């Protein structure tokens, strides 16, 4: 079945949700001993993981067909409250254990209704760590259940109940003065969970980042069409409300917001026994691929069997249509998977019984269910065949796009093969301007990509030759957002960079041949330097994402100021650091002599080493990718062909810009 708009076809679970459906697998003891095994990290990302686990419990009620709203509040003290208007966690005693179902759910690992298909058909919570782990990692937790016209309450400390499950009045969260009336829902039934992350576990801090939570919630709003999300941060008054009737088709349109779409989103949906397959597809005029994959409400950022099946079906359907209408001159011509992904924006979304889910790894980033691949492949293949027949205009636009990509691929093959051949580890094949390091161990080797010959000369003289390589760039590189790979590789500076890294590019990528595990961009602290850095980031993001995803990319932080205090010389990396230094020394008899560096070339080799390249003193920013949707949108807006989005961005942020004039 193919349509232009998404429909919310969530299968409802049984209305009978009672204590005898709660199953206990094991206790909570391992959680506090090894928290990272359950939430991935004890940094701030672990706090965010805990918040989304509680939110996902509420989302599961919506997937089951009961909840219509989810409220999330960050309080002044950094505690968090999540509210839903679902059925409410059962409070009756579990016959087998003679303890309240609420207490078991909140204090026993892997306990809940998701292990019983009668209570939840679809859930993100089976391999999710669940409320019990969040409870174990919280200084305190309070749960209110509104059920059967009554309110029940239980409190906990670090996973242990401190009260019995007892009847209560409305929770205090409704009366807090810093919460607007719109965030004081009078729910007839549902669950209200408040918790305070344990500072003994999360030693780096417990102050949740609103933007991170906002992104995760917005993502879920796209996936569960018809569910309202309400967010409030009482620390600064920020709030957001999300509701998307269009589901994943709306998400695809959002991903293509700053691009020129070639057709309306193609929406595919099919229910096969207990598994539902959804896909939304829309091509644009760019050269990059942007495909998101989900299982229930879990973002499978590493893909898996569902993504593999989708890609195979897409390539086959386009090939079949091209052959059918005679688009290929020779009978043996066809497009490849790489061709079919150029300019593709898509979302593949699977809903399936929680108890059958198989993920590779505790962090749930890759779907492992082998049976999903043929199901998705058949579903997408059949649906696209029908769609192409019924929408020949859209089908031809897509075919023209991928055929053009195939021609570009063939034209670029010789150039790419030449670069890959030269990208071997032999020193004779490396670019002449590369000052390589002595070490051949990638784990201890690093390369500085330096702006200009002057800075490159200082860096070559000041470096530690044992493990530091220098590659100077002459001028600004090509904007790779607006060019195909064959044109990109014709640009000398990029070609030299690819050869120096040694791992190839595109379909010939060989990650194990990467010659340096720290790739450091070092440019001047001015507008030109920032532009060059942005151009390099665009190249890595679009064409060597492996470098970013595996945390090999860094940005050097050269100092802005040199402060002479008699014979003593200090360096300041920011205006704030300069002010602190002046406050500390400026009141003495010696008036500091301050010099502002306009470029790396103004530093002598010793200064550059001591401030920017010496591992003992330097500051490096690691480039990571936390929000793929937002990152794609920003790169498209800043570096793409469309002028108006970029103009609006400049007008909006002009006053906050720091200019070196």
Pick out its properties.
single chain; 661 residues; alpha+beta; Heat Shock Protein 90; Ribosomal Protein S5, domain 2; Rossmann fold; 3 domains; nine-stranded mixed beta sheet; six-stranded mixed beta sheet; 25 strands; 34% helix; disordered N terminus; DNA_gyrase_B_C; topoisomerase; TOPRIM_GyrB; DNA-binding
Strand and helix map with partners:
Blueprint lengths: L1 E2 L25 H5 L2 H4 L4 H20 L5 E6 L5 E5 L8 E2 L4 E2 H7 L22 H7 L1 E10 L2 E8 L2 E2 L4 E2 L22 E8 L12 H14 L4 E6 L4 E5 L5 H8 L10 E7 L2 E9 L6 E6 L2 E2 L5 H20 L12 H4 L3 E8 L20 H19 L1 H31 L23 E6 L1 H10 L5 E6 L11 H4 L3 H10 L16 E5 L4 H17 L1 H5 L3 E4 L4 E5 L2 E5 L2 H11 L7 E4 L8 H9 L6 E3 L5 H12 L3 H11 L8
Parallel strand pairs: 2-11, 15-17, 18-19, 18-20, 20-21
Antiparallel strand pairs: 1-13, 2-3, 3-10, 4-5, 6-7, 6-10, 7-8, 7-9, 11-12, 13-14, 14-17, 15-16, 21-25, 22-23, 22-24
Helix pairs in contact: 3-5, 3-6, 4-5, 8-10, 10-11, 12-18
